[in-house]
Every structure is written in C-alpha cells, then in structure tokens.
Specification:
By secondary structure, the chain is an alpha+beta fold. Helices cover 31% and strands 19% of the residues.
Length: 310
C-alpha cells in the first residue's frame, strides 16, 4: 500500500512540517557588559619620552647657539654695515647725547685677527647678539676718557673669539661719526690676574669678552691707548647692570614666555589634528616650518638670558 500524501500548506503548496520535526530554538545568551580596565600610565614610557624630548630640545638649542646664532649675527652685521656706511657718508651717525640703545655707532677693526665688526650702543646681552656693544657709561672711541666694547667669544658670530691672540703692540682701528682712530695695545690680561699699574693716558679703549669661551669664569681684557690726540668727550648716559661684562639680560623674559606658550599651543594642535585625522601626511609639510620658526624665537629669547660675552 502506498503512504498517504503529506498535506500541503495553503500558502506555498509545500508539505507541512509535523510538530515533532520542528527544531527547538535555544534561548539567546545575554551578553554581560565588559568591565573596562582602568587606564594605567606606563611610568617608564613617560619618563623615557620626556627625556627624549628634553634631550632633543637641548641638542637643538646647542645647534642654534653655535650655528644658527652665527648666521643671524652675520646677517645683522651685513645690514648694519650698509646702514652705517650710508650714515657715515651723510655725517648723520650720532656721536653725543642719549643715543638709542642698539643703534649702530661705529666700526671696530683688529687687523691681526681679521676682525671687522659694527658695534652698537649698549652692551647688554640683547645688544651683543648683533655685534660688539659700547657700554653706556663710557665715551665713544676717539674721545677723551675710557671706552669699553663688550663682545661675544663663542656664540652669535663670536666677534672676539680669538681675542686672546692679540699681542702688545698690535693696532685696533675704530671708525665713528667723528672720524677714524688708531689704538695701540699695551695690556692683555684676565680679570682675575694680579692688579697691575695701568698707564694713565688721555684716551683708552678696552675690548672685553669671556674666558674661557664656553664656561666663562672670568673676563679677558685687551686694553689699548689712542695714537694721537683725543677729541673732547661728549655727554653719555648712565649704565645699567645688564651692561656689565658676563651679565645676562632680563629684558625678554615676558617675550620668552609668550613665544614658549605659542609653541606649546601650536604643537598640541598639530599633534591632535594628526592623531584624530590619520592619513594626513601633508600636514607636517606645512607644520614643520611653523614649528621651526617658533623654536627659533624661543631659543633667541632664551639665549639673551645667557652672559653677554658668551
């Protein structure tokens, strides 16, 4: 006998499944929320990263001091030389009264060293980053009295880098708005040397820098007397503490703080943008010049805090 045909469903015309043939569905497992692990800071990684950043900044600062600052000082010298040359031709170089700090007022030459530098009014660190500076309380070279020029020995062009090679009898030439004057070296000494009797002369010029060059503990002084008769001394202005050899300047502390804050803000923004929107490799192409420009400003203002003879 043949088995009776299976009943068809009304909708699909297919055999209906028997109740016994249905598969029992297992109940869904309820997923419990996963506990978040507390964020833990890897102290070793943080310390290592911090040391790497500090070391990198220190290396960049050293590169700025001994390479970048020299390029900047040489550029400043070129600009000031052209400016002073025009003023000498027009006889408009200031020679008396309250001369504005930082004004180019003359040229000092040491032929035996091949040195030719424009010097400015004022000898604080803010002025000697551009070239040698004349102390406010000393007369202009060529005038009756004492003139003191302070210059750097290792950074910002190192105008007086080889001042220790000057010998007694060497000549120093100075050009100001009052003419050209020649001085003859009669004394080379360090500030910690035993006191000696310095000959009293109508006009004396002293060049001062640091000694030793990188770790100055004293100053090196080259003193010379004018060959000829001096001009009458003109009115000068009182000196300030920052003018003294070996002193740093505090005039740019606020500027340093502002540039450092700008650097932090820009660095944070660039880092956040790079992390939140990956794949933007071109971001750093535009960011690097901006960061370098900010670093330059920070380093220059920081360097002013160092001794004016370094």
């Amino acid at each position: 006998m043949t088995a009776p045909p299976e009943p068809l469903t009304e909708a699909a015309g297919r055999p209906a499944a028997s109740p016994a043939g249905r598969r029992s569905r297992e109940p869904r497992k309820v997923r419990t929320p996963r506990e978040r692990q507390p964020f833990r800071v890897n102290t070793a990684v943080v310390i290592a990263s911090g040391l790497m950043v500090v070391t990198g900044l220190a290396a960049l600062f050293a590169l700025f001091l001994f390479v970048g600052s020299g390029l900047a000082a040489n550029r400043d010298q070129d600009v000031m030389f052209e400016e002073l040359k025009q003023q000498l031709a027009l006889a408009t170089v200031p020679v008396n009264g309250a001369i504005a700090t930082g004004t180019p007022i003359g040229i000092v030459e040491v032929p035996t060293l091949g040195v030719e530098q424009v010097f400015v009014e004022g000898s604080a660190s803010e002025q000697t980053i551009h070239g040698p500076g004349l102390r406010h309380d000393t007369v202009l070279p060529g005038q009756a009295g004492a003139s003191v020029l302070v210059g750097r020995r290792a950074t910002f062009g190192a105008a007086f880098a080889h001042l220790d090679e000057v010998k007694v009898g060497d000549k120093i030439k100075v050009t100001t708005g009052q003419g050209q004057f020649t001085y003859v070296v009669d004394l080379v000494r360090t500030s910690d040397a035993p006191d000696v009797q310095i000959e009293q002369v109508p006009s004396r010029l002293t060049l001062v820098t640091s000694d030793p060059a990188l770790t100055p503990t004293r100053s090196l002084q080259v003193s010379a007397q004018l060959d000829g008769d001096p001009l009458p001394a003109t009115t000068r202005q009182p000196t300030v503490a920052d003018d003294l050899p070996g002193e740093g300047s505090s005039g740019r502390q606020i500027s340093l703080l502002l540039w450092a804050q700008a650097l932090l803000v820009v660095t944070g923004f660039i880092t956040w943008t790079a992390l939140s929107k990956p794949g933007r490799g071109g971001l750093w192409i535009g960011a690097v010049p901006v960061l370098l420009a900010l670093l330059w400003q920070v380093f220059e203002n920081l360097a002013v805090l160092l001794p004016n003879t370094l």
